[in-house]
TrEMBL record, chain A:
<keyword id="KW-0560">Oxidoreductase</keyword>
<dbReference type="InterPro" id="IPR015424">
    <property type="entry name" value="PyrdxlP-dep_Trfase"/>
</dbReference>
<comment type="function">
    <text>The glycine cleavage system catalyzes the degradation of glycine. The P protein binds the alpha-amino group of glycine through its pyridoxal phosphate cofactor; CO(2) is released and the remaining methylamine moiety is then transferred to the lipoamide cofactor of the H protein.</text>
</comment>
<dbReference type="GO" id="GO:0016594">
    <property type="term" value="F:glycine binding"/>
</dbReference>
<feature type="domain" description="Glycine cleavage system P-protein N-terminal">
    <location>
        <begin position="32"/>
        <end position="296"/>
    </location>
</feature>
<dbReference type="Pfam" id="PF02347">
    <property type="entry name" value="GDC-P"/>
</dbReference>
<comment type="similarity">
    <text>Belongs to the GcvP family. C-terminal subunit subfamily.</text>
</comment>
UniProtKB/TrEMBL annotation, chain B:
<feature type="domain" description="Glycine cleavage system P-protein N-terminal">
    <location>
        <begin position="27"/>
        <end position="467"/>
    </location>
</feature>
<dbReference type="GO" id="GO:0009116">
    <property type="term" value="P:nucleoside metabolic process"/>
</dbReference>
<dbReference type="Pfam" id="PF02347">
    <property type="entry name" value="GDC-P"/>
</dbReference>
<comment type="similarity">
    <text>Belongs to the GcvP family. N-terminal subunit subfamily.</text>
</comment>
<comment type="function">
    <text>The glycine cleavage system catalyzes the degradation of glycine. The P protein binds the alpha-amino group of glycine through its pyridoxal phosphate cofactor; CO(2) is released and the remaining methylamine moiety is then transferred to the lipoamide cofactor of the H protein.</text>
</comment>
<dbReference type="InterPro" id="IPR023010">
    <property type="entry name" value="GcvPA"/>
</dbReference>
<dbReference type="InterPro" id="IPR015422">
    <property type="entry name" value="PyrdxlP-dep_Trfase_small"/>
</dbReference>
From TrEMBL, chain C:
<dbReference type="Pfam" id="PF01597">
    <property type="entry name" value="GCV_H"/>
</dbReference>
<dbReference type="GO" id="GO:0019464">
    <property type="term" value="P:glycine decarboxylation via glycine cleavage system"/>
</dbReference>
<comment type="similarity">
    <text>Belongs to the GcvH family.</text>
</comment>
<dbReference type="GO" id="GO:0005960">
    <property type="term" value="C:glycine cleavage complex"/>
</dbReference>
<dbReference type="GO" id="GO:0009249">
    <property type="term" value="P:protein lipoylation"/>
</dbReference>
<protein>
    <recommendedName>
        <fullName>Glycine cleavage system H protein</fullName>
    </recommendedName>
</protein>
<dbReference type="InterPro" id="IPR011053">
    <property type="entry name" value="Single_hybrid_motif"/>
</dbReference>
Length: 486, 473, 127
């Protein structure tokens, strides 16, 4: 990694340079200013950088060199499923027929795109065990929100909308769960996990009531543990008149092994940028399709992609729909990649994905359990949590361990989440990592545990090998500086 | 000769495989060998992989009888062939001139954009949770925020949202939260899908939506005055509006000053190269979509929403913001900041539920803005103006009537004598992708919204006018 | 400047200084500040806002946490320490003096018996 300071692109700018060329204008120029009220014509040009094409490429290459991606090294970020993003899928997404089509052109002229989406829906029905799919949500959190609006529309249709205003969420849930419930207009009630790290049936029973709109669950949960009472949980939630939401962030653990549909869930979202290998892009774009059981289909977002005879069509004719959650048809380009991935894997391949992901996680856990506290002893699914409590007693925090891992050439695991585990370290290796890589990572973690004993100050100093040393987040939050000023 | 009953997927094949007669082919994405697996199981202390799945209740397990049913896997070569055959079924902008805009535009994107976004350090990274290993992404997003604030004239930008429509939904949520008022007024000159998305947001947060009608093709300000009241949280207008015309933001802001309602502007960032920045004439929140600046149309997504506010509302902004700071040695660096706004910390009290955004597309757009630069975006915007007005004048010469009375940017509405879908079908046969049917939106029998970007040549436009004349004859 | 010994404390870690019969000044304790770490932002109420007992009236944020400050009394907010907007670090540096948050005119009778004194509070947090 580069350690020198990369100048801001604005600091490299010089008036007169450019990195583009447009064709000569072949029509007469039109003076819009003359037609506009004076105050609507731009007075001062936006100060965008002026650089040559090579300067531009060097700038972004220098920035790329200060960034860590999956191809840089192992990325054990828990609940994020940082698996390999196949190269061929990038080529496919850039095919002319996928990239250069307009969302409002006549559906008859984009039958290939519609067929692809239709077939992807069919595949996701299989993977989730649900009856109908909408590809519209742009990411997992949007899928959650859309799913909860479906809960809301359903309860309203049954005349229980004003009564059922509470969404139950386990204390181990992703932050998006309670946040999505709030923006769907729900109150949130948190359920304490039991000593096994899962939702206890008794705690759930006492939280259920006539105000319950539904329960959101991640299964396996964020501790990497399968909710073993899921069948009973589904029964009692349904008996109480509530619905069950499946947060598919951790679906990589169960592909081809089980389905949320079989488990009794009513609505599910999948993160195609996690389990289905589309790149995270430094934070997005993702794709968060939702699936529902038949009786909730009328509420799905529109438009729906359907097949009539031999033609694929966009259908908006659903009176009970929650409406449109995003422009057009979701993140189509991301869906193209996910479809290509499914076609590359097949059913057996996906099952192998989950088996290897779970195998890798349990293997790493077994290798590390002597050196770090493991709050939950049972076998995990695709991820597991450690606690840095033992190290904290020596004055080394989990954050220090995370930063030290960067020096060893790895990205850090998810830390301090889930909130219910003190000094939490959450590790998800994924199936695309070789045993050799897992061993190197385990060796580094063990070495760090030794450093905690012998040279704790080294960990406080970490990272020592990155482009910057530890950054001051307090200054950044106290005196926010969010744009460049000369 | 292979019997079909022996093919993969058949029961016979399954039995052969379980007996080890057929070799399991190692998948190119999966590195674990059978020997690795055996060794790892031993370290874990279990006999077989199934022992790690024994906690899944038997009744919910996928079994051979109810296993998931997907098509057989394809090799890379077969996959490319298959995907190519699907892509070939679509009519694209590289083979026909598009005169369709309506929120998504066929613009030129220089090669550098694709080359930067393909760099795996950007493309395959997660959200920059560990800033010391993510300085490249963070600096690029900080530069993005700066460029967006330059264009919009606003103080604070986040590092992207899903798309322009969802950005607007978030803006309406913010407005109702800070004003504690419950009604949003939407101009009828907004993109129809923007209205639909905001309706969905309002269904969630339980506030009211009212609309302001049109005076010809622009927002009716007399009607705005009459519906504006002390319950109004915000007024939303589009700039230029859906029909291409430029709304007078300053006049609208003057109407709002008596109330405490916020002015939310949905702006095309390309148009801002020529139009006064909304931040300089009264906007409180400016949102929109970066698609015109460097993103392929890609059938409507992934695009990239932008979201900007005046500094007063900085701590109410949804989603990720990058801030500048220093490391322990005093060196400049970047982090995600003001994170207590966000769902992973404040959970149900967060300003939004957003986690994933559109970071890679924000990067693409930054590269685009850096490539064109200060002069280039103006030149491109001017070419859009020139081409669109050339097309408009040619249509007028050919006897067509324009619906726009106010100044317009790169779109305008033309009246037709036949149903738009019929006209578009005929245009398609002549090799053109025609405009968007706005008849119902403006209450005109047949009206089409047309767009001409910098990609359209004089020759294409002349041919298009000729074709349109023939089609409506 | 208030001395810790003259203050009252709640088990939600607010401190209360009785200024006069019906005026109090409110802040958060040294222990609370230590738990929070570096305070980066304080969201203050508006002047003349009503304070309700056991309802949040302000929010104190560190880099990775956000905590509500609960009203220990019923009343009307008469003064706000708006210097905290630019200098939230005052809460860390001097929680009992420069880091005060609001003053309140108490409605009804002031009952200090429900609160702990400094000694009792220190015992409470060391438990």
């Amino acid at each position: 990694m580069t350690t020198s300071n990369t100048k801001m692109i604005f600091e490299q700018s010089k008036s007169g340079r450019r990195a583009y060329s447009l064709p000569e204008n072949d029509v007469e120029t039109f003076d819009l200013t003359a037609q506009l009220p004076k105050h609507l014509s731009r007075k001062n040009a936006a100060e965008l950088p002026e650089v040559s094409e090579l300067q531009l490429m060097r700038h972004y290459t220098a920035l790329a060199n200060k960034n860590f991606g999956i191809e840089t090294g192992f990325y054990p970020l828990g609940s994020c499923t940082m698996k390999y993003n196949p190269k061929v899928n990038e080529d496919i997404a850039r095919m002319d027929g996928f990239m250069n089509i307009h969302p409002l052109q006549d559906p008859a002229t984009v039958q290939g795109a519609l067929k692809l989406m239709y077939d992807l829906q069919e595949d996701l029905k299989q993977v989730t065990g649900m009856d109908d799919i909408s590809l519209q949500p742009a990411a997992g959190a949007q899928g959650e929100w859309a799913g909860l609006l479906i809960f809301k529309a359903y309860h309203e249709k049954n005349g229980e909308g004003s009564q059922r205003k509470t969404i139950l969420v386990p204390d181990s849930a992703h932050g998006t769960n309670p946040a999505s419930a709030a923006v769907a207009g729900y109150n949130v009630r948190e359920i304490k996990s039991n000593e096994n790290g899962t939702v206890g049936v008794e705690a759930l029973k006492s939280a259920l009531g006539p105000d319950t709109a539904g329960l959101m669950l991640t299964n396996p949960n964020t501790l990497g543990l399968f909710e073993v009472d899921i069948v009973e949980i589904a029964e009692i939630v349904h008996e109480a008149g509530g619905l069950l939401y499946y947060d598919g962030a951790n679906a990589n653990a169960i592909l081809g092994k089980s389905t949320p549909g079989e488990m009794g869930f009513d609505v599910v979202h999948l993160n195609l940028h996690k389990s289905f290998s589309t790149p995270h892009g430094g934070g997005g774009p993702g794709s968060g399709p939702i699936g529902v059981k038949k009786y909730l289909s009328p509420f799905l977002p529109v438009p729906r992609i359907e097949k009539q005879e031999e033609e694929y069509v966009l259908n908006t004719d659903y009176a009970d729909t929650i409406g449109r959650v995003k422009g057009y048809f979701g993140n189509f380009g991301v869906n193209v990649r996910a479809y290509a991935y499914i076609r590359s894997m097949g059913a057996e391949g996906l099952q192998q994905v989950s088996e290897d992901a779970v195998l890798n996680a349990n293997y790493l856990k077994a290798r590390l359990s002597k050196y770090y506290d493991t709050p939950y002893k049972q076998h995990c699914k695709h991820e597991f949590v450690l606690s840095g409590l033992r190290q904290k007693r020596k004055g080394v925090r989990t954050l220090d361990i995370a930063k030290r891992l960067l020096d060893y050439g790895f990205y850090a695991p998810t830390v301090y989440f889930p909130l219910i585990v003190e000094e939490c370290i959450m590790i998800e290796p994924t199936e695309t990592e070789a045993k050799e890589t897992l061993d190197e990572f385990a060796d580094a973690m063990i070495k760090i545990a030794e450093e905690v004993e012998e040279q704790p100050e080294l960990l406080h100093e970490a990272p020592l090998t990155k482009s910057v040393r530890r950054l001051d987040e307090v200054v950044a939050a106290r005196k926010p500086k969010v744009i460049y000023q000369k | 000769m292979i019997e079909s009953s022996h093919l993969p997927g058949s029961l016979y094949y399954f039995i052969l495989k379980s007996r080890g007669v057929v070799m399991t082919e190692q998948h190119r994405y999966l590195p674990a060998t059978e020997a690795d697996r055996t060794e790892m199981l031993k370290t874990i202390g279990v006999e077989s992989i199934n022992d790690l799945f024994s906690d899944i209740p038997v009744t919910t397990r996928a079994t051979h009888e109810k296993k998931i049913d997907l098509a057989e896997p394809l090799s890379e070569l077969e996959l490319i062939k298959h995907m190519h055959s699907l892509s070939e079924l679509n009519k694209t902008a590289s083979s026909s001139p598009y005169f369709l805009g309506a929120g998504t535009y066929d613009h030129f994107v220089p090669s550098v954009v694709n080359h930067v976004t393909l760099k795996s350090e950007f493309m395959t990274a997660y959200t920059p949770y560990q800033p010391e290993a993510s300085q490249g992404e963070l600096q690029a997003l900080f530069e993005f925020q700066t460029m967006i604030c330059e264009l919009t004239g606003m103080d604070v930008s986040n590092s992207s949202l899903y798309d322009g429509f969802t950005s607007l939904g978030e803006a309406c949520n913010l407005a109702t939260a800070v004003t504690k008022k419950q009604t949003i007024l939407l101009s009828d000159a907004l993109h129809p899908q923007a209205k639909e998305v905001v309706d969905t947001y309002a269904f969630g947060m339980e506030y009211k939506i009212e609309t302001i009608g049109l005076k010809q093709e622009i927002t009716d300000l007399d009607q705005l005055k009459s519906v504006l009241n002390e319950q109004t949280a915000a007024v939303v207008v589009q700039y230029p509006n859906f029909f291409g015309s430029v709304e007078d933001l300053k006049e609208i802001k003057e109407i709002l000053t008596a109330s405490n309602a916020l002015l939310i502007v949905v702006a095309n960032p390309l148009a801002l190269a020529k139009l006064e920045a909304p931040g300089n004439i009264g906007a409180d929140i400016v949102v929109g979509d970066m698609q015109p600046l460097g993103l392929p149309m890609s059938y409507g997504g992934p695009h990239c929403g932008y979201f900007t506010v005046k500094s007063k509302y900085m701590r109410k902004v949804p989603s990720r913001i990058v801030g500048e700071t220093v490391d322990i040695e005093g060196k400049r660096g970047f982090v995600m900041t003001l994170q207590t706004r966000e769902q992973h910390i404040r959970r149900e009290k967060a300003t939004s539920n957003m986690s994933s955004n559109q970071a890679l597309n924000a990067l693409a757009s930054s590269v685009f803005m850096s490539a064109l630069g200060k002069v280039g975006v103006q030149e491109m915007a001017q070419q859009n103006i020139d081409k669109t007005h050339y097309l408009a004048s040619k249509l007028k010469e050919a006897g067509f009537e324009l619906f726009n009375h106010s100044a317009f940017f790169n779109e305008f509405v033309v009246k037709l004598s036949k149903p738009v879908s019929q006209v578009n079908n005929l245009l398609f046969k002549k090799g053109f992708i025609g405009g968007y049917d706005v008849s119902a939106l403006i209450n005109v029998e047949y009206a089409m919204l047309l767009c001409a970007t910098e990609k359209r040549t004089k020759d294409e436009m002349d041919q298009f006018v000729k074709a349109l004349v023939e089609v409506v004859k | 400047m208030a001395e810790k010994e003259k203050l009252y404390f709640t088990n939600e870690h607010e401190w209360i200084e009785v200024i006069s019969e019906d005026y109090v000044r409110i802040g958060i304790s040294d222990y609370a500040v230590e738990q929070l770490g570096d305070v980066v932002f304080v969201e203050l109420p508006a002047l003349n806002d009503t304070m309700k007992k056991e309802e949040g009236f302000a929010t104190v944020e560190s880099v990775k946490s956000s905590s509500d400050i609960y009203g220990p009394v019923e009343g009307t907010i008469t003064k706000i320490n708006d210097s905290l907007e630019d200098e939230p670090e005052k809460l860390n540096d001097s929680p009992f003096s420069a880091g005060w948050i609001v003053e309140v005119q108490v409605s009804g009778m002031l009952d200090t018996k429900e609160w702990m004194d400094a000694k009792a509070y220190d015992e409470f947090v060391s438990e």
